[in-house]
Amino acid sequence: MEMKRPEHVILTSHSNHVYRETTPIHWGAKTAKERGPIIATHSEHRNAIGTHAGSYTVYRALSVASGQFPRNHRPDLANTTATVELGPYDSWFDNNIVSLDPWGARITESYDDLLKQNYNIQPSIAVTSAHLQIPEISKSIEEGKIKVDGKVVVQKNDIKVTKAAIEPVWYLPGIAKRLELEEGVLRKILFQETGGMFPELVTRPDLKVLLPPIGSTTAYIFGNPEDLANPEVELTCRVHDECNGSDVFGSDICTCRPYLMHGIEEAVKTAQKGGVGLIVYFRKEGRALGEVTKYLVYNARKRQEGGDSASTYFYRTECVAGVQDARFQELMPDALLWLGIKKIHNLMSMSDMKYNAITRSGIEVVNRVDIPQHLVPLDAQVEIEAKKAAGYYTSGDVKDGETLDNVKGRNLHD
Ligand SMILES: [Zn+2]
Q1: Residue 24's pLDDT band (boundaries 50, 70, 90)?
Q2: Model confidence pLDDT, tens digit, residues 286-342
Q3: Residues 6 or more apart from 90 whose CB is under 8 A from it?
């Protein structure tokens, strides 16, 4: 395909030159119409900074650059609508949600008139249904811990699930407020720390919405998704941050996959009892510090004098990364609020940061469920004991002093 590209670059810094035809965004409004569409595509209608597809936007740029992807492509949205309609819920209004677009799955029904007028408005949320086949869960089914009920677990190993993919859509004044920052300071630092990726952050204070180039979030729902919003229906939930090493490849240095699988098993059981189960999976690899930093920390932990120890677990991360954690759990509850959740009966997480963020968002948590000790890999004892000592929830003992020092991990070359 031959490329026809303009040779000049149009900067979007001056409001009198671009985005003249835009529609306003009234974030937190009670209807999609009143709120107005988020338009983050190439067009004169654009009213948001950034682009769709999070970090994959860079791959799309490569496709465009190499001539494979027509820059003016408009998605054909026929038959793409959600398999279940969720909301609108009260939690969608009044800026309770600031890091995703609650109307993001309802583009065709909400903005049909504008789509017909050639506005390039794209969904930022998609909802579909699927079957899961997971070795650990299949084993639990074979052992009779989970029954084939023909509703949640169908056939031999198949678990029915509704899943939603959610792109980040940030309402910058709301994000600033959540983090207790001035919006201007937030915008300036976002601009500086991304190497100046989005000049509009500093030149266009009138544009309040940013689609940042970061990973998305996926919700896996077992049982009836509409029941998530009913506090009378038992809800078992795990909010899980990505750990590729453990989740996908079975690395034994942490508890991520075992806890995730335990979360899925309990979520399925709750759904089978007439409740609802939920796993929300956030792409925040290595405490949102990235996998390179994570592996550097592993080496530093295991090579330090005295070997890998629970008592120096957080210290080693901070030495390498400059911070213990960069996940900003303050934004995490938005996914729960989008699903209309008011009450979590069983929270499958020991993290005090997650618990505090969820309860601060107004969601009630009844029980906190820690990972059963027999699911913790031997080498992950360092992580779990360090976390318990640092204030993570546990129904068991908390080690300190010498007993914490004595929780040791494997050597690097064993
Ligand atoms: Zn992990």
Answers
A1: very high
A2: 998 999 999 999 999 999 998 999 999 888 889 999 998 888 999 999 999 999 999
A3: 340
Cα 217 from chain centre: 3
Cα 255 to averaged position of ligand 1 atoms, centre (Å): 6
Pairing relation of β-strands 209-211 and 170-171? antiparallel
Q: Is the pLDDT of residue 5 over 80?
A: no
Q: How confident is the model at residue 1 (pLDDT cuts 50, 70, 90)?
A: very low
Cα(189) to centroid of ligand 1, in Å? 29
- Write down the pLDDT at residue 22: 83
CA distance 412 to 414: 6
Q: Say whether pLDDT at 165 is over 80.
A: yes
The CA distance from 411 to 301, in Å, is 9
Residue 372 Cα to ligand 1 midpoint, Å, equals: 16
Locate the domains of the chain by residue range: 22-70+170-211
Cα 195 to Cα 172: distance, rounded to the nearest angstrom: 19
Report whether 49 contacts 209 (CB < 8 A): yes
pLDDT at 3 over 70: no
- Residue that is written with structure tokens 């309802």 in the block: 106
* List of residues 6+ apart from 100 with CB closer than 8 A: 124, 125, 166, 167, 168, 169, 217, 334, 335, 338
Q: How far is the CA of 256 from the centre of ligand 1 (A)?
A: 4
Rounded to the nearest angstrom, the distance between the alpha carbon of 109 and the centre of ligand 1 is 40
For residue range 257-273, what is the model confidence (pLDDT) as tens digits? 999 999 999 999 999 99
Active site residues: 325, 327
